[in-house]
Amino acid sequence: MSDHPQLKEMKKKIRTEAKALAASLAPEYRRSASDAVFRAVTAMPEYREAETIFCFVSMPSEVDTHPLIRDALTKNKRVCVPKCLSLGHMEAYPITSMEKDLEPGTWNIPEPREGILPVSPEELDLVIVPCCAAAPDGRRLGFGGGFYDRFLLRTDAFRALICYGRLLREDIPTGEYDLRMDAVISEQGVLRPGI
């Protein structure tokens, strides 16, 4: 899975711009946007009806997913989080507690502790997907590792991308391996491309 050199350069440029913008966002904006995204996701029928969800564990520069993970756990959903195993490869691991089941992992991102067995991606109903930037029509620019591009090919789950509205832009370049998301969720609301 590799992009053409010109496409790689375009993606790299937009990633640099998006990362700088994300780093400059005020804490108040991050909090209010994260709260709005939480409300939007939990109101979605795909979330309410999902038995097994997969959600990334957010880093400080991303929309805060910790409340979403806790909400799903309190609603007795099976919650899976990613663990990066090798170059471009990740798996879904179920957790029952953020405090007991997560430890610092690759790039210091919290991930499942040793001893937890992975869940098949085919068992997932909903995948909450991060991005560096995204387009309102469901095009996603990841962080460049290809982890989600590869993982999403292995599941038919509903793909819900979450991001700050300020990271939505029309000029997201895509290659043949870049999948579109079923929903794009920001503090501005839920966009359902193609529906």
Structure description:
This protein has helices at 5-24, 27-43, 45-49, 66-74, 98-101, 147-152; strands at residues 52-55, 78-86, 89-95, 102-104, 110-112, 126-129, 133-134, 140-141, 158-162, 183-186, 189-191. It has 195 residues and is of the alpha/beta class. It has a single domain (5-187), classed as NagB/RpiA/CoA transferase-like (Rossmann fold, 3-Layer(aba) Sandwich). It has a 7-stranded mixed β-sheet. The protein has a two-stranded antiparallel sheet with strand order 4-5. β1 (52-55), α4 and β2 (78-86) form a beta-alpha-beta unit. It starts with a helix and ends with a strand.
Rg, Å, rounded: 16 Å
Kindly report how far apart the N and C termini lie: 28 Å
Q: Helix and strand string, N-terminal first? A: HHHEHEEHEEEEEHEEE
CATH fold label: Rossmann fold
Low-pLDDT parts are none
Sheet with the most strands: spatial strand order: 3-2-1-6-9-10-11
Structural class: alpha/beta
Strand content: 15-25%
Overall spatial form: globular
CATH architectural name: 3-Layer(aba) Sandwich
Question: How many distinct domains?
Answer: 1
The CATH H-level superfamily is NagB/RpiA/CoA transferase-like
Main sheet makeup: 7 strands, mixed
Binned, the helix content reads: 25-40%
CATH class: Alpha Beta
Number of strands: 11
* Count of runs of 4 or more consecutive helical residues: 6
How confident is the prediction overall: mean pLDDT?
93
